[in-house]
Amino acid sequence: MPDQFFSSNILEEGYTNKKDLGYENIYMGLKGRHNFGSGSIFGAVNINRLAYTTKDYLDGNNDGTILKYIEPKLGLELEINKKNKMQMTYLYNATATSFFELSSEYLFMGNQTFSRGVGTFGVFRGHNYLFNYTIGDWIDHFFVNATVLYNQKWESLSANNIITPKYRLLRNQQGGFEDLLHFSLSTDLYLKALRNNVKGKLSYSSTRSKSNEINGESYSFYSHFLKPGFELRSVFDGMFNYIVGGSWKYYRHSSVVQQSNIDLTQFLDLYFDISETIELQLLAERYRLGGREKENNYYFLDSIVHYELSENKWKIKFEMRNLLNNHQFEQYELTDVGRESTFHKIVSRYFLAGVYYKF
Question: Which residues pair with 254 in a beta bridge?
């Protein structure tokens, strides 16, 4: 198959991959709400008419398809008391075929990967369930917000992979199944005695897809993502304040191989009000990126100075970026068939100055 792929795709004279895709969406939405006691029931219906047209400049063929579908939505909101609120929502959603999923020919996607779509228009249906719970509000000393989302799709696209040491062929095909579970939690606590705000965040995602293939062998793909983080922000009245925080990212993928990765991000921002007209900011970041036997550590330092020439009128801003003069960093990403590394080039140490005038 790999040799046949390249021998049958040699570019001939006059070849072009130019294609036009026309997209028209006519929709109508209806929604309503009924209030009762301490809560309300709400619903909505979206009626869609999608019209696709394509023109292939290589063979001159024109094609078009009209898709019609309805997306109903139903939800419930409850206010248990002034500090406790809850919301539940259900949506029968639809996702139309994208341009890359539509192409019947292989397209170069980068990283030695060629991808081919199903060649036809379609709509993939699924269920969306959302649950949200809130304790307190933003002006309270304590606030918690929790969200759970579950999405299930059937008759979605699955991946048929052909992998060689030199390239990867990815063919999308119908008949797959996938679901997603996502949970997020955020907290905000004001410590009056320390004059500090403590913020905490936690997110978790789990995805699953079936009916995939690699070199003719079927497999199921499972992924897990966990990201806890925190932030401590001072609210002093004096000339000095700070923000310090960090987050951890843990990935784990299971398919034909099992692999995991951990990334760590830390930052420290210092703010100095030197006088009524001069403010200095020092911004430091540290990244510890996994993916290799030897972890990669990167450090960044920026400085910003604000100088107010006249009250509420003229301001000057000096920026000193990348003071440690980093030139690049390498980041790893897990996929269903392996891992990829990307080198990001960074602009060398530089300085900026700006003048601002407020009318």
Answer: 222, 258
* Residues making up the chain, counted from first to last: 359
Transcribe 99-165 into DSSP letters: HHHH-SS-EEEETTEEEE--SS--EEEEEEEEEEEEES-TTSSEEEEEEEEEEEEEEEEEEEEEE-S
Burial (CB < 10 A; 0-12, 13-18, 19+), residue 158, is: buried
- Among residues 92, 101, 94, 106, the alpha carbon closest in space to that of 121 is found at 101
Is residue 7 scored above 60 in pLDDT?
no
% pLDDT > 70, the chain: 82
Burial of 67 (0-12, 13-18, 19+ CB in 10 A): middle
- Name the burial class of residue 315, with classes exposed (0-12), middle (13-18) and buried (19+) by CB atoms within 10 angstroms of its CB: middle
Which of 17-21, 61-65, 171-175, 281-285: highest mean pLDDT? 281-285
Nearest to 320 by CA among 303, 301, 333, 332: 303
